[in-house]
Amino acid sequence: MHKEDPLCTCILPGLIQALQGFSLKTIKTLPVYLGSMNKHNANQEPELIDLYQKPDKIYTRSFSGRFRTLRLAGGTFLFLLFFGTCWINLNGRQAILFDLPARQFHIFGTTYWPQDFILLSWLLIICAFGLFALTVFAGRVWCGYTCPQSVFTWVFMWAERVTEGERNRRMKLDKEPMSAEKFLRKSAKHTLWLAIAFGTALTFVGYFIPVRGLVVDIFTLDVGSWGVFWLGFFTLATYGNAGYLREQVCIHMCPYARFQSVMFDNDTLVVAYDTNRGEQRGPRKKSADHKSMGLGDCVDCSVCVQVCPTGIDIRNGLQYQCIDCAACIDACDTIMDKMGYEKGLIRYTTDNELAGQKTHWLRPRLIGYSSALFIMICLFIFSLGHRIPLELEVLRDRNVLYRVIHDDQVENIYTLKVANKDQQPHEIQIQVAGIENLKIAGKTSIVVEPGSVEQEIIRVIAPLIDGAPITRPVRFSISSSHPGLEAITAESRFMVPGR
Hints:
Immunoglobulin-like; alpha+beta; metal-binding; 17 helices; iron; 4Fe-4S; 5-stranded antiparallel sheet; single chain; 4-stranded antiparallel sheet
C-alpha cells in the first residue's frame, strides 16, 4: 500500500485511536478527508466530523386547551384501569391474573388455558387491524393519546414541573451551579419519578403474581429472587423511558414511527399548519392591521414549538416525529384568542383540505382495514361464545393392548384426562360408543374442580365377535350437569385378539 495513501494517513489512525480508547468521546469524532482523494496530500490536516451528536434536552411549556383536557380524561381512565384492575377480586380470585407457572390466565371470572391460544391470536389481529384503520383515518392519535410511552412521559413531565418549576425556571436551574435549592429540587424530582416507576412496576408484576401477596412480601422482605428482578427491571425501565429517553423512543426506537408513512394518504387526518393563512410570519401588536403589513396570522411566537413533547416545529410541515398529541393546536388557539384571530391556524386537517380540495373520508384502504377489523371482531366473538370450558383427552394403555377376561369378552384400558377451564366445579358423565354392546366397567361419573385436570382410568369391555377387525374405532363423550354445555367427544381405538 502506498505510504501516503489517505486511508493509511487519515482513516486508520483514527480507527486505531478509537479502538484503543474505546470511549464514546473518542469514537464520536474520526478524522476524514473532505478534499479530493486523488491529491494524495499526506501533509493535509484531516477535518473532524462529528459522528455522534447528543440531542438537545426538550423543555416543554405548560398549556391548556380542549385537546389537553381530552388527553387528561383518557389518561386518567387508562391509569385507573391499569392501577385499579389488579386489586379487584371476583369469587375470591384476582380479576385479572396471568398465572404463568400454572399456565392459566384468569380474566374476569373466566380461565383461559394454552389451548385457547386461538383467542389470543384473534385479539392480536384485531389490535393490529384496529391500529391500521386508525392510522389511515387519523394518523398517530394512538401515540399522542393512549400509548403508554406518551402517557407516562406526560406524567413524568408533570412531576418535573411540580418540583422544578415552569419551562424558563427549569432551563435556568440546569445552567446554575449545584446549590442546596437545586439539590433539593432535583432530589424531589427523581424521588417522585422513582415512586411513580415503582408503583408502575408493582402493578405490572401484580398481574403475574397476586398483588396482595406481593405487597405483603415486599413489606416483610420475603419477595422471591424473580420477583425482585422484575420489580427492579420494570422500575428502571419506566424511570429511564419516561424520565430520560422520552421522545427518543418515539423518534428512533418505535417501529410505528417508521412504517406509518406508508399508511398515510392525502385524506389522512393529521396535525398541520395552514401556510396559506399563517404566512408571512411576524410579530405585531394586537391592534395592528397585519393584513396591511403583509403578514399572515402566525405571530412567530414559537409557543407551538415550546409545548411539543418531541421538539419539532409543526410549521415546517408533516414530520414523522409528530405524535398527533395536539399540544401545538391548544397552544396556538390560545394565542389566536389573545390576538382576536380565528382559531385553527394549526388544526386537525388533511392535505387535500389544505390544498383546497375535497377530503374523501370513505376510501378503499380505510374500507378494507375496517372490513377486516369487523370480520376479525365477529370471529373473535364467535370463538368466545362457542368456547367450551371443558376439554377431553383419551390415552390408550400401551403396555397392555387388550385383555381377555372371559371366553366371550375383551377389555381395553384407557386414561381419560378431563380439564375444567371454568371457575366452578363440573360433574361429568362419561359415555362410550362405536361397538355394539360396548360398556364401561366402573365409574361413569366424576367431579372436576375449577381450574384442574382430573385423570380417570376407564375399563371398557366389548364382546368377542368372530371375524371382527382387530382394531375398531370407539368414541368417548363427556357431558356436564350444567345446562347449555354441549357434549365433548374424543376418539380412540379398541383392540381385540385376531380370530
